[in-house]
Automatic annotation (TrEMBL):
GO terms for biological process: DNA modification; methylation. It comes from the Bacteria. Signal peptide: none annotated. It comes from Desulfonema limicola. This is site-specific DNA-methyltransferase (adenine-specific). The keyword Secreted does not apply. The keyword Methyltransferase applies.
Length: 1534
């Protein structure tokens, strides 16, 4: 490893070390032919200027601390002008040695920066812009023009390699500062400036240098850098024997090592660096290596947890039973995770040298040799596997190491005193043991990636450990049988034995959220460090602390740039030392976090400590700011005067119901007095608490926090005193608030419960009186007595229950963080006192889901549904009866949680009335956290969150949107697709948003930046500005007046178009539209699944199958397959496959059990298969949902499911086999259309008047990123639809066909895909802008009906619909159009009519047609036609050989050959419809007329050699392309 080059986290560490060690990796580092001469010239340049820059010291009197980049016997001369080193050293190196062409002091407008970062004065002047050669330089100058004094930076620097900023030779560039004179600028400011230049010029790489040190930087990376000490290298060369002879440089004396060191400088700063792609290769391959390491470590950690748990379970002395119950396994999982993270902490701390791995002289320390993790591993390596199974010495050494780290002692190990190692906190873990075979295997997994490659813990970020934690969160420890042996496995909700993918928020999003949220707050504090440190920043669902770590970085960097240290003895160097100082100050002063999982809290503490660590410094005191609790469930002191529920007598019995008129007192006046003297009065609450209590607590807390945290003793005393001050003194208030919450979770409205909460002498009243006691001793004594009450004990036990999360650890914010809730006088603040809230809260629904619960115990659960799922669960419960109780507890907790959140009166924006209907749906955690963030924040405070895009478009979020848009000031909204899973390890179609807002009402004309459907985070870095749309309340109300839903506009042009459409056309749900559809959901696929019958089930029970058959002569007939003796009803309907149950006598004769039931107040007879009669007393048979019922002589018709529906097609696919995710369906050729579903249902049994009359069915599972978003068809008579195929019932077939045609048009589809996320709901459809029915000419109505009928009426179920349109030509199998090209012509015609009804110009229609990127993916392509698919450096590097990639100023794209036959054909048809001249040069027409440049950043299509529109269509048709249809459909019709 060269001593002149230092990589400070710019490149992946382990990969970089390999690069430096091997000159041939990743490609050969070869100097040019004149490399030796270049080194000679470089040394001559330095030798000549050396007397003007440095002063030699005596060898006997070297500097105790040398200047960075210089030997200790040399120091810089003072007061040397920057121009000297720049002009006489740096530029000669650049031009004569590295052969760059330099542009100096060019005045630039940094257009690559976000607007807020641009200076008002246009005088940005990077010192030097490096061009590869004179040609590139001259080209840039020519483009800029001679007359213009200021050039656009991104244009001027497009072909530049580097942006370079030069500093005085004597001035540090982030490693040291001038120590002898007052600084003129800071190192931090210099770094900030060069980063600004790099990003502003649209470049990746830049250089900051003072001549002696060359700092290589990447855009956006301020702390991370690579430094080459050039002058140190040259000085060593000059002092090398034989190099300097009589004042001349002898190049023959250069060694191979000298040339290799020079090659490093040449490759990292010369032509190979950027122009040759060397830096990008190392950076990207290093990133890939980091991902590889993280993936392997995540998997090894997953396996290690299993081994730890298995080892604890199998160790006989631990006392585990042979088959532990699940609650014991859940506890074992937590103990195992704690053990794992102790090991990971040690390995990381040792790698960072936070434990004494080396002596002061750099030798291996005694700790490293005798006590470290590796020492234990190497000790165990000496023994055989069999010996290790009978040993525990290695485990004993690990236990001693844990204690050593916790308390300090031998081997000069300082005490870090973190809760992770605390023996009292983890008392149960202290009692468990492992044999050494397990210890050895675990250490092997965690120390090595494979047999020989060690895990580079020093290079891993603390966020990587958070990623491991997030990946283990959803895993559950399960006892299962493998062969004849019982074993323990970690399984996810799908029953898979594997580590989860990353759910960790990408750092670019975290950085954006935190920076946007807290920077304005810090700027308001000016340069006052105490004001900045007094800011309170909260993450209410902090996980392992990712957002809080970023808060520390950004606040500390701001303080380093702008403030002097407030403590004595701290270097005011604006460099790394001061930055590290501020990080520790921020951690103790400003960081607040809460998580429902206690392990997460411990890991967040560890992460923050590791990130701010100093050798021999204990873990920072964080107990007062990082706490465990349920952020959503807690009591407000202003509510606690009385219980939140009261008993009421109903016909069904006594129930708890919310207390009426229990409003939080919103406007509590702040204290007017300015006197510092404490006011001894009663707190303005519904029950008495002395204000002196709270003011005294705040004074004590402030004093505690001001005490030093230098030693473990400091930390222990802080912890003890804080607990005594806050937890102890407020214990009665906490118990009362716990009691208030527990009523929803633990209390029944029986005699005991009513006594506790409503009796004048009940527990609640007694505890409330205790809270009013002003004498601390008397209050403490009363609390101790009342804690013996059985219900208090029950509540305390419940607070500790749960595996992982502790849902009933109620969190009372005013009590937990009194400094944020009370003034210094002990008065309750008018609003909560956090200045900012940031985070990525949970996205889960609060809903009991059988698949999620049972899935971990059996992988088949994920692939089962309906009756099959219920049957599988029944079998699982037979094998493991405890699952029944666990499911009931899980379901009860979910119900209680939902009830609390909806009744507690804290969350007032979760529902809203939209168009006369109250919004509903399953509650989402992110919705409650979003509203809670508003509760936490003080007036004028800021919030930044990452949540699902449902927030902006879901009907259930309407109330939240009204709160955010009307009561708060939105700062920015960005929405993203999870394309190629670039952000999260969830489905790639999922959309999420990063947004920020201020808690204050918006000004009248407020507007904010927004961008939608982004596929990476480039826009957050100032790129893709054309995607930014300015939104206002006026615009939002114009396009979504009732719901305030946002639309996914990709440009200002799209926004103007949407505004015009919504101004000119009513929405479908309005009376003005004239359509009057009725939205219905006929059957629920889960709740009604007991009604669904499979073919196998019916075949075994005497049913007859009726199946249409296509005869050789072209006619169709009905084929019946069933019992010979069954009597069938007369006049069977025509149609697709259906089944008929046998007559009553058939069932009686075969011993079926006859029973009666009522359906719609009519008695109905049904039969039960004899073999199923014994299930009568099973708890799984619900008399109201008895799946065994057979109604005789009834027709069981097809149940429509989502896969059966497509555009103008109600029988798109037929079911073959399988269930759930493994269900297999296939396309039905247009010539063979019939209904062939998965299950069937008896309409009579449903008791619903559904399945008849004109109705449109559509797929509700869809997305804005799908090929098409609205898949709708007229449905057949008599067949019901599952809830995944909701229906619009219309009063006539004419309206039905016309509305279907408009809904299926490209115009309506585009309007819809700008709104939806993953579901097409009633809310979205109701807000679809649509032409008025009365405005459509009668002639046009008739044409639409006839065309739509030819497309839709392919089976007998739609014969009635056909006959209403063609009364003189009754339906036959030949009625529908079955030629695909002719069907395409009809669809293009209908699309043209719809576009005309919307009043679109040809150019507007052309713009719309480009918004469907997945069309025609598998069609034959035209030469040179491509679609651009977003990629990344990672995907490009991992691509296949035949892939074609391009890199533009707005991203990296894969060029995929693509047909555009549908777009071209639909455009051509509309041009013909509008008598518009068809373009011969389609690319130029798009650029000039549509204002969409195919080569520009808003376009994802490229037009090849064939540009004439008519020729494009004809050639594509001759090549076998068919518009509107996928190749799979085309092929199955051939």
């Amino acid at each position: 490893m060269s001593k002149y080059i230092n990589n400070d986290a710019l490149f992946d560490g382990s990969y970089f070390r390999r690069v430096i060690a091997d000159p041939g990796f990743p490609r050969q580092r070869e100097l040019p032919a004149d490399g030796r001469q270049k080194l000679q010239k470089l040394l001559e340049i330095w030798h000549d200027i050396r007397p003007r820059l440095v002063q030699d010291l005596k060898d006997s009197d070297p500097l105790s601390i040398s200047f960075a980049g210089l030997p200790p016997t040399v120091k810089p001369l003072k007061h040397t002008a920057e121009a000297v080193v720049e002009n006489d050293f740096i530029i000669p190196v650049l031009e004569d040695i590295l052969n760059y062409s330099c542009d100096k002091q060019k005045t630039l407008l940094l257009d690559g920066l976000p607007e807020k970062e641009k200076k008002k004065k246009k005088n940005d002047r990077p010192d030097i812009i490096l061009f590869r050669d004179k040609k590139a330089h001259n080209s840039a100058v020519k483009k800029a023009g001679k007359k213009s004094g200021t050039a656009l930076s991104t244009s001027f620097c497009r072909d530049a390699d580097f942006i370079l900023d030069a500093k005085k030779f004597e001035k540090g560039i982030g490693s040291d500062e001038d120590r002898d004179q007052t600084r003129d600028t800071s190192a931090a400011a210099d770094i900030e400036q060069i980063d600004r230049y790099i990003r502003g010029c649209g470049k990746k790489w830049g250089i900051l240098t003072n001549g002696r040190c060359w700092r290589l930087m990447r855009a956006g990376k301020k702390q991370e850098h690579l430094r080459f000490d050039l002058v140190m290298f040259l000085e060593d060369l000059l002092n090398q024997e034989g190099v300097l002879v009589r004042g001349r440089i002898n190049e023959k004396s250069f060694t191979n090592e000298n040339l290799e060191d020079f090659a490093l400088f040449y490759y990292f700063f010369g032509h190979p660096a950027v122009g040759g792609g060397y830096l990008d290769i190392i950076y990207n391959e290093g990133e890939a290596n980091n991902r590889r390491v993280s993936d392997i470590l995540r998997d090894n950690a997953y396996k290690s947890v299993q081994m730890i748990a298995q080892g604890f379970w199998q160790y006989k002395g631990n006392g585990f039973p042979e088959k532990p119950p699940q609650n014991q396994l859940d506890n074992l999982r937590e103990l195992s995770l704690t053990f794992l993270y102790r090991l990971l902490f040690l390995l990381k701390a040792e790698a960072q040298k936070l434990l004494p791995m080396q002596t002061a002289q750099g030798a291996e320390s005694l700790y490293a040799k005798a006590a470290s993790t590796k020492a234990i591993f190497f000790y165990l390596q000496k023994f055989s596997s069999e010996d290790l199974k009978n040993m525990t010495e290695g485990f004993n050494r690990l236990k001693r190491l844990f204690e050593l780290v916790n308390s300090g002692g031998d081997y000069e190990v300082p005490a870090y005193d973190g809760g992770l190692f605390d023996t009292e906190t983890h008392a149960e873990l202290e009692q468990l043991r492992l044999n050494d075979h397990v210890v050895y295997e675990i250490l092997n997994k965690l120390i090595y990636l494979d047999e020989s490659e060690p895990v580079p813990y020093a290079d891993l970020d603390v966020r990587d450990f958070g990623d491991i934690y997030e990946g283990l969160l959803e895993q559950r420890l399960i006892l299962e049988k493998q062969g004849q042996e019982w074993t323990l496995s970690l399984k996810n909700k799908k029953g898979e034995r594997k580590a989860s993918g990353s759910y960790f928020t990408p750092d670019s999003l975290v950085d954006h959220i935190v920076r946007e949220t807290i920077t304005p707050l810090m700027e308001k504090c000016k340069r006052d460090p105490n004001k900045i440190l007094s800011l309170k920043i909260l993450d209410p669902a902090m996980g392992s602390g990712h957002f809080l770590v970023k808060v520390v970085d950004i606040m500390a960097w701001h303080l380093t740039l702008n403030c002097a240290p407030i403590d004595k003895g701290v270097p005011n160097d604006n460099g790394p030392n001061e930055y590290a100082y501020w990080k520790r100050k921020v951690v103790e002063s400003s960081i607040y976090g809460v998580d429902v999982n206690p392990m997460a809290v411990e890991l967040a503490k560890v992460a923050l400590w590791l990130h701010t660590a100093s050798l021999c410094k204990p873990l920072s005191f964080l107990d007062h700011h990082l706490k465990c609790g349920n952020s959503l469930v807690g009591a407000d002191l202003r509510h606690a005067a009385r219980p939140g529920l009261e008993s009421r007598e109903l016909n069904s019995g006594t129930v708890w119901q919310p207390v009426e008129n229990q409003e939080i007192q919103e406007d509590i006046p702040a204290p007017k007095t300015k006197k510092k003297k404490r006011q001894n009065k009663q707190l303005d609450l519904p029950f008495p608490i002395n204000t002196e209590l709270f003011s005294g607590i705040l004074e004590s807390v402030s004093a505690i926090l001001k005490r030093p945290s230098s030693t473990p003793a400091d930390i222990k005393s802080k912890h003890r005193d804080y607990f005594q001050t806050v937890n102890f003194q407020l214990e009665s208030q906490r118990l009362l608030c716990d009691l208030w919450c527990a009523q929803w979770f633990l209390s029944q409205p029986d005699k005991k419960g009513i006594s506790i909460y409503e009796s004048p002498n009940g527990l609640y009243t007694r505890l409330k009186k205790i809270c009013g006691l002003t004498d601390d001793a008397a209050r403490a004594e009363a609390v101790e007595k009342i804690k013996s009450h059985w219900f208090i004990k029950k509540v305390e036990t419940a607070r500790k229950q749960g595996y992982g999360p502790r849902p009933m650890r109620f969190f009372h914010w005013q009590i937990e963080f009194p400094e944020a809730a009370f003034t210094e006088h002990g008065e309750l603040k008018p609003d909560f006192g956090f200045d900012a809230v940031v985070g990525n809260p949970p996205w889960d629904k609060i809903k009991s889901a059988k698949r999620d619960f049972y899935g971990a115990f059996n992988e088949e659960v994920a692939d089962s549904q309906g009756t099959s799922l219920n049957a599988l669960i029944s079998e699982m419960e037979k094998e493991n009866p405890t699952l029944i109780t666990e499911w009931e507890e899980y379901e009860k907790m979910t119900v209680n949680m939902t009830t609390f959140l909806t009744q507690c009166n804290f969350y007032k924006h979760q529902t809203a009335v939209v168009d006369g209907r109250k919004t509903g749906g399953d509650p989402d955690l992110f919705r409650y956290f979003t509203e809670r963030a508003g509760h936490f924040t003080c007036e004028g405070g800021r919030v930044g969150l990452v949540v699902p895009c449902t927030l902006w478009q879901g009907q259930g979020c309407t109330g939240l949107r009204r709160f955010l848009f009307e009561k708060c000031t939105i700062s920015s909204i960005y929405t993203f697709e999870n394309y190629r899973k670039w952000a999260f390890g969830i489905h790639s179609s999922f959309k999420f948003t990063a947004f920020t807002f201020i808690k204050q009402p918006p000004s009248e004309n407020h507007s904010f930046k927004a961008a939608f459907m982004l596929r990476d985070s480039q826009i957050l870095e100032g790129l893709l500005k054309e995607r930014i749309v300015m939104l206002s309340a006026y615009y939002i109300k114009a396009v979504s007046p009732s719901s305030l839903a946002l639309i996914d506009n990709k440009s200002d042009g799209e926004a103007r178009f949407m505004k015009k459409i919504h101004q000119d056309y009513p929405v479908l749900g309005s009376k003005e539209s004239g359509w009057n559809p009725v939205y219905i959901r006929e059957l629920d696929m889960t709740n009604d699944s007991w009604r669904f019958k499979t073919r196998e089930w019916m075949k075994d029970r005497g049913f007859t199958q009726v199946l249409p058959k296509h005869q050789p002569d072209g006619t169709w007939s009905q084929e019946k397959n069933g019992p010979y003796t069954a009597i069938l009803p007369n006049n069977l309907p025509k149609g697709g496959e259906y089944w008929i149950s046998a007559d009553p006598d058939w069932y009686k004769q075969r011993g079926y059990i006859e029973k009666q039931t009522q359906i719609n107040n009519e008695n109905k007879t049904f039969f039960i298969y004899p073999d199923e009669a014994d299930l009568e007393n099973s708890r799984k048979i619900d008399s109201q949902k008895d799946y065994r019922r057979i109604f005789p002589s009834e027709i069981y018709t097809a149940l429509y499911e989502g896969r059966m529906i497509n555009i103008f097609d109600h029988s798109q696919k037929r079911y073959l086999r399988g269930e759930g995710r493994k269900a297999i369906w296939e396309d039905i050729p247009i010539s063979e259309k019939m209904l062939q579903p998965r299950v069937f249902v008896c309409k009579m049994e449903t008791g619903k008047d559904a399945g008849g009359g004109p109705r449109i069915g559509f797929c509700d599972i869809t997305g804005a990123t799908n090929e098409r978003s609205i898949l709708a068809s007229v449905l057949g008579q008599g067949s019901l639809a599952g809830h995944k195929v909701p229906c619009l019932k219309i009063d006539s077939y004419e309206k039905t066909f016309i509305l279907t045609s408009i809904m299926c048009s490209f115009c309506s589809d585009m309007l819809m895909r700008m709104r939806i996320s993953t579901n097409l709901t009633l809310n979205f459809l109701s807000n679809l802008a649509i032409p008025r029915y009365s405005d459509i000419p009668q002639k046009t109505k008739l044409e639409i009906c006839r065309l739509a009928a030819k497309l839709n009426c392919t089976t007998p179920e739609l014969s009635e619909a056909w006959n209403t349109v063609f009364p003189d030509n009754p339906w036959t199998y030949e009625s529908a159009e079955r030629d695909l090209w002719k069907r395409a012509e009809i669809r293009a015609r209908l699309d043209a009519i719809a576009a005309d009804l919307y009043g679109l110009t040809v150019e507007e229609y052309a713009q719309i047609l480009t918004g469907f990127p997945l069309l025609d993916r598998d069609q034959p392509t035209l030469p040179g036609d491509f679609f651009l698919t977003e990629g990344s450096e990672k995907s490009k590097e991992n691509g296949r050989e035949n892939e074609n990639w391009i890199e533009t100023g707005w991203g990296i794209f894969e060029l995929k050959p693509r047909s555009f036959i549908t777009r071209d054909f639909a455009l051509k048809t509309y041009m013909e419809y509008k008598n518009y001249a068809k373009p011969q040069k389609l690319d130029e027409w798009y650029k000039d007329k549509v204002n969409l440049d195919p080569e520009g950043s808003l376009s994802r299509f490229r037009i090849g050699k064939i540009k004439d529109l008519i020729e494009r269509v004809e050639i594509a048709k001759n090549n076998g392309a068919v518009p509107y249809y996928q190749l799979s459909i085309i092929n199955c019709d051939l």
